[in-house]
């Protein structure tokens, strides 16, 4: 008999939590016997529909995880720090979409297309990588497997939905204010709770998350460190510049790579991606075919195009990688991890 | 007695022409005895104010340039091809803001802060570089002078105003349609007259200008070739990915460079830029100070920030370069060339 699972979603009313519930309802391949939708006390008591039935949102407490098999966390790092181990203690496997445990050496950081096998070494918690990292490594792993990978330089064009529902609203309100020639005072972007706020409407902000001591932002350091951990290779050179642009959903990335192997062509790179899992090649410049944030939004795949050889370095290639940051970049990757746990009989 | 000049503006009603006229009126340091505002027959007859007097726009013909000393062209490549040599024949020096003559080896391609002396070798036509190139070389030249420059990898975040007045309108109309949940069919972006058109509102388009045979766009090849020509060094490795984003004015650029010299620090790079002509250092991450498109709009300088050492390559540095693409990227650089011609007594 097929096993069936009790799944909890922590942060059920957030931008990512909402997507998780939708994917559990429509896309997940494992059997679900029960769901628990958990949140802060503020949203507790609200009702959500799930497969035709009403589910009352409950406040997330240690006891909420009694009987839960899979707990999907996406309610901020502090909630994960407070409750993930409580869930594990009660027998759940936690799939954590915050940055709380990503760099913990005892916690696997997983993109199923890249390092599914790392799941076997879990100790109860599995971390879901940062959105901008996931789409990049999903697109680059098939290239790395075929030709080796020596270096990555990425500049991102990130959507505001990564900052949550209120950031989307600020982009919309700020855009309308500019169009109507009205005043608008930003209060969220680039980083909720940081000292200064700047307009994201009709602007580009080279700051995502706060700055670290080396003048990179945390977002940039996440891309650098997580890529090495997921690819299980600390020798890959990775550098990142992370930029927020006025897009609602869909992160785009301009990526330069250097492969190890000699004599690789742009065509070889395209062929490596053509049948890669979770990757869609959209690369036909003659017909103006290339990935775009608006066309990737709502889709689960990672889209790659504009693949071309560097003019000066025979091992260098440029490309344009786009994916829905709330789906493959967050909710969908978490559900995929759950599917992998079931498929590999880890749970 | 100070010389005084008859200045013609070709393309007087365009996005750049309008800025040129404003700068001639308010900022130019040379004396102007007469202006001619020229356009296609469509705008001929319209009136523009200049220093309190009415100037009637005239159709640009070969005869329009009789008596003209300085002719500023910004009406598209075909107009420059048709009329620039006619102007030179009649004694004018042409400063051409189109791509028509930029790579002509007999035509100097000039950013005054970088290669003003190239003006001495002019044969009547001087080319104004592409907007995205100008701001990059203005920021990188002081670094190159101090430490040498081996490599540039740039990803751009370009404003729509580079595509003209109708593109700005399309961004505004498209944005409002999205906010109002209405249908909108783009007809201009990414490239006027190309086969397909895509929304620029809340999107990022990795295509500026049409594609060339090597799958780079013309815009990307302009940045690559023009940088080498302006810096008078064909050995510098340059690669570019050019992307249009929903910003009205102000191009931003994520730039990675490798210097020649050993032991250079991010602080050294900052110091090289601190007093560089036309460059403003805005680089204080602890206080969230970095260049932004919306704050650079309307200003003549090139703004540089987010300067930091690459983590893996001791000669590598990252930075964020922003400037108003219609001013330093076009109109202001043209006026500066005219000022240099006067200052160097070439005219």
* Tally of DSSP β-strands of chain A: 14
Named CATH topology of the largest domain in chain A: Dihydrodipicolinate Reductase, domain 2
Task: State the end-to-end distance of chain A.
Answer: 15 Å
Count of spatially separate domains of chain A: 2
Using the 3D structure, state the CATH architecture of the largest domain in chain A. Answer: 2-Layer Sandwich
**Strands across the major sheet of chain A, in which order?**
5-2-1-6-7-8
Radius of gyration of chain A: 20 Å
The profile of the biggest β sheet of chain A is: 6 strands, parallel
Largest Cβ-defined interface:
A-B, 59 and 59 residues
Look at the helices and sheets of chain A and give the structural class.
Answer: alpha/beta
**Beta-strand percentage range of chain A:** 15-25%
Oligomer: homodimer
Number of helices of chain A: 9
| CATH class annotation of the largest domain in chain A | Alpha Beta
State mean pLDDT of chain A (0 to 100 scale). 97
> What percent of residues of chain A adopt helix (DSSP H or I)?
25-40%
Outline the low-pLDDT stretches of chain A.
Answer: none
Shape call of chain A: globular
**What sequence of helices (H) and strands (E) makes up the elements of chain A?**
EHEEEEEHEHEHEHHEEHEHEEH
What do we call the CATH homologous superfamily of the largest domain in chain A? Answer: Dihydrodipicolinate Reductase, domain 2
